[in-house]
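In the previous chapter we treated chains in isolation. Here, by contrast, the input contains two separate entities that must be folded as one system, with a combined length of 266 residues.
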Amino acid sequence: MEVGLNHFLIVSALLFGIGLFALVSRRNAILVLMGIELMLNAANINIIAFSRYGGLGVDGQVISIFVIILAVAEAAIALAIVLNIYNNFSTINIDEVRTLKE
Amino acid sequence: MSLYDGIFYAFAIITVVSAFIVVLSKNIIYSAVSLFITLFGVAGFFVLLHADFIAVTQIMIYIGGILVLLIFGVMLTTKITDVKLKTKNINALTSAIFVIGITAVLIFIMLTTNWKVAEVVKYDETIDKIGVLLLTDYLLPFEIASIILLIALIGAAMYARKSK
């Protein structure tokens, strides 16, 4: 069967589901971040697949550059927050972090 | 099955299997290494979709930047001698049912929708077109993105250091 738009969409849906699973089931804050990265990658595959098969041209690729930029900013800020949580609570298990201050 | 299809299926298997390892591995270092392979697989998809510049950007920013940052985060937040390097899943069954449901709905929608598929254009270099678009049509988002990156840089540096 010829590889077309649907194949890329299915792979991106699978990646999205796996990232969502990391988000809801893992309790390590860094693994939750990895799940978010997987979901952003799934979105990027979708955008670029539509820009190739939907006749959007290069515009879709430019938009996916902005997605990557936002992912970088998010990862930096989120890791700074995780480090701060670790300094204050000595754990990054997000179930044990329940209070706003000690 | 053409060569293109074979490469697609190879990348699909690599990406999905290593993504599963990211989520299911008990050792967070294994997860980080599997994430590396997953991101490479996604870069391969971008090449297959004729987005060469995005593929290189993906490798440089995700693998060169975000992944190194994540591994630094792992190193800084776990004591190496500690067994806390191992993490566990909670509510695995409930969340698995939830996630499988959502994924099934997504795939169902994607397969049943009648997407408008345009004539596939021949491969053409994209770098110069992206450069022109960034400085014409997408100039305002481009400038805002640079300001966001500056804010994130300053904010992360301020927030991560010890405040005493």
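The helical segments of chain A are 5-25, 29-53, 59-89. Chain A has a mean pLDDT of 87. Compare these points with the single-chain example from earlier in the chapter.
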